[in-house]
Amino acid sequence: MAQQLQNITISAPGFLGINTQDSPIGLNPAYASIADNCVIDQLGRVGARKGYTVVTTNGPAVLGTSRGICCILEFISRANVTTVFSAGNNKIFTGTTTLVEVTLPAGYTITEDNWQIVSFNNNVYFFQDNHAPLVSTAGSTTLALLTSSGTNVPPEANALMAGFGRLWAANTATNKYTVYWSSLLAGDEWHGGSAGSIDLTTVWPNGYDEVVAIAEHNNFLLVFGKKNILVFTGADSPSSNLTLHDTIEGTGCIARDSIQSTGTDLIFLSTRGLMSLQRIIQEKSLPLNDVSRNIRTDLLTYISQEVESNGHREAIKSVYSPIDAFYLLTLPESQVVYCFDVRAPLENGSFRVTTWSVLNPLGFSMFADDALYMGRAEGIVKYGGYFDNTTQYQMRYFSNPTDFGSPANLKFLKKFNLTIIGGQSTPTTLNWGYDYTSAYQKQEFTFGSSNIAEYGLTEYNTDGEYSASIIIQTPKVNSTGNGSVVTVGIEAQINNAAFSIQKIDIHALLGRLI
Amino acid sequence: MPEQFNNQLSMTGPQGQLTNQAGYFNTQLPQNTTNTSPLQNQTFLPSFPNTGLSTGEVAGGLALGGLLGGNFNLNDIISGAANYYGGQEGIKAAYGVGQAGLGLAEQMGQRASEATQFKPFTVTTNLGRAGTTPEGGFTLELSPEQQALQTQLLGQAGNLFKQVGQDPATQQQAIYEQIRQAQMPEEERERLRMQEGLFASGRGGIQTAQYGGSPEQFAYEKARAEAQSGALLQARNQALAEQAQSLESATGLLGSGFTPQREALQALGYGTDLSNIASTAAARGAGTQATLGQAGLESYLQGTQLATNLQQQQMQNLLASALGTSTGGGGMLSGGNPFTSGGVIDEAFDTPDWLKSVEDYIKGTGLYGSLFNNSSTPNTTNSPGYNPYGGGI
């Protein structure tokens, strides 16, 4: 007698992001084991990330065989003149479409592209260790050395921050334990006026540490060591009122450019993963809040592959996009970008996380128009569209092995009913496998080529395309095989169209007990 | 310093100067010496004043005057010579009376000097002995206890004077160190509190362009510097005050050190007052004696002067009786030389020989003879006043 098919539904598969830390058995099927080139879209679904378009036209000419653009900063002067500064190939450029080398001081030689570029008081300051600090006055394309006469030599610091009306710098080649601050509103005054410094040798709570980064958050001055964080108050008048408010032991920052402020959280990369400082401050009883705990091991593995120099992993960059509500962390050596959805943390306090591959950004910058720009080998690229510079890219989703609540029964998968939002002539491969295998059974199919109306882009008096604004695909795929636990995956070649997985319905037979 | 000090403490010596030949003072009493007056037991009488003219020369002069006058009268000559003699006797007697008065006055002065001569004396108390010297000085000899006390006080005064003589900066530094030692524990506590506060608040390593270190350190160092400045000023004032106090104390001790001497000298003053009783009595006795002697002498001199005058008057009367007067006519000696041997006057008064020879000179052999001789009688060549061509007056 034939048994009745049972319906197993995976609603919004992977919308909890990747979880490779917990045991897959019994894990919520909303977690994914792989969510590559995915984001959590506005409806909480796993969808394909956007692609990018190359903005720079002379990238190869100016960047040569270098890694590419590593640093980008958009500066808007008081005169409302926008200047984009970028650095790569041991050069500093202005512009986005055409990268133009700035004029450096005579005899000035750049040996690294690890600049920390900060806009402060209508000027742009360029700091990195072993390099005399540079300044662009009001966005000038001619950079100058910071004023230095006598002992008024600005620190050749690797960490720079603008806040509380002054510049803050730390981590020189010879001194990694002192934080310097400039005079009020004078980024070129480091030894006069209200300038000063603080030796943190006696402040570190856990022995000696090195300053990696400085940040301002929630009216606190945060000094990030490798293994400790110092929280200071009174930074608005540091000479008189700078006071240690709190110390956080065991959690530091290992990548200067991983620090991003989301407005409510200050996110940074530590040796324990990606951390949220605000939660540490708020939850004194739980000072360590690892927002990357679901991928902790994978993340730390990738981090370990990054080259550490100048006291931190310089190549790791990050960006926070308030529009997309994600925090991107690029690990160039691993060619992996972790995308953390910061809308709301999960129950365990972590962010939903996906990965991006192929993109390989070297640097990020959010521009004033809320566009995300990235530095790549070919120059500056803009995040958007669903092509990676005119080419398709693959989105991959794989669930964790799941037993559907009946760990002792065999499962015979008969049919998949997929609900896909978007997709346009998207080659897709459905993968399924039993009992933790990675040798998946595959079924390819292609979505239709229905055009999607482009609201806002329709040209009146032309051939307007009026159809459904969102294409909903519901492909059905028959499947075979059996096993006690099942893994399901979808691989889609993003072909200039959004692609989100709304639901996966599985018709299965529950077999005998094993 | 004590040596210098001792050198400053010189006492008067015998001539009224303080000496310090053996210790601070010469405490040896002087030997009494006898005052010797240069007039003692000596009578200096002036010699009789000599006019240089003898009676004969006077008589000769008178005879010469008679001759020259052309009316020679022997009686007048004798009368003039007698008057001259009488005057000479009166002068001689008066001079003798003066000499006698002078001798008596000197004897009375000598006795008064002896009676009023200063006699050194010594006053002895339990503080010591104070004695006077004939020269008008004094000596002091303190008792051993007072000497020891004086030595102690003067030694202490010397030490204090030594402090007074020091550079104030030295004492100032010492006082400053003392003040700072008193302040430093609290400063150290404040510094520790500040350090604790700084490091507890993480501000221990702050260096600022405004304050050098942190404002707390600046405030602390400023307060510390102010305390140092205050201590320095306080030390300066204290050093000067102590120096002034040392000077005052030293002066007081110095005065106290001389108190035994002063008391001894005061006792000497008391002794002097007592000795003045005796000396005053002696002086009054001498004065009385001198006054009485002077009165006696004056009485004697008056009596003697009166006797001389009476004698001279008597002599003049006798001469007038013998020789007559110009108004009364001739006397007893009108007829011849009354002075020659066997003459009236010679018989009565044993006239001197020169007077006896007056006639010889006048009448024959002498100068007067030539003066009184007739021009027909040549003068002898061998007589005094020979003038072979003279015929007399």
Give a verbal description of the structure.
The complex is a heterodimer of chains A (about 525) and B (about 400). Chain A has about 525 residues and is mainly β. Chain A has a domain at about 5-50 and about 395-514: Jelly Rolls (Sandwich). Chain A has four helices and 40 strands. Chain A is elongated, with a radius of gyration of 25 Å. The two termini of chain A are about 20 Å apart. In chain B, the strands form two sheets. In chain B, strands 1-2-3 form a three-stranded antiparallel β-sheet. A two-stranded antiparallel sheet of chain B has the order 5-6. Chain B has eleven helices and six strands. Chain B is mainly alpha-helical and about 400 residues long. In chain B, strand 5 and strand 6 (about 330) form a beta hairpin. The chains are: A mainly beta (about 525), B mainly alpha (about 400). At the A-B interface, strand 17 and helix 2 of A face strand 4 of B. Strand 17 (about 195-200) of chain A pairs antiparallel with strand 4 of chain B, so a sheet runs across the interface.
Which percent bin holds the helix content of chain A? Answer: under 10%
What is the number of E strands of chain B?
6
What profile does the largest beta sheet of chain B have? 3 strands, antiparallel
CATH class of the domain at 6-50 and 394-513 in chain A: Mainly Beta
Number of helices of chain B: 11
Structural category of chain A: mainly beta
Strand content of chain B: 5-15%
Secondary structure category of chain B: mainly alpha
* Uncertain parts of chain A: none
- The CATH H-level homologous superfamily of the domain at 6-50 and 394-513 in chain A: Galactose-binding domain-like
Radius of gyration of chain A: 25 Å
Task: Name the average pLDDT of chain A.
Answer: 88
Oligomer: heterodimer
Strand fraction of chain A: 35-45%
Global geometry of chain B: rod-shaped
Greatest contact pair?
A-B, 23 and 15 residues
CATH architecture of the domain at 6-50 and 394-513 in chain A: Sandwich
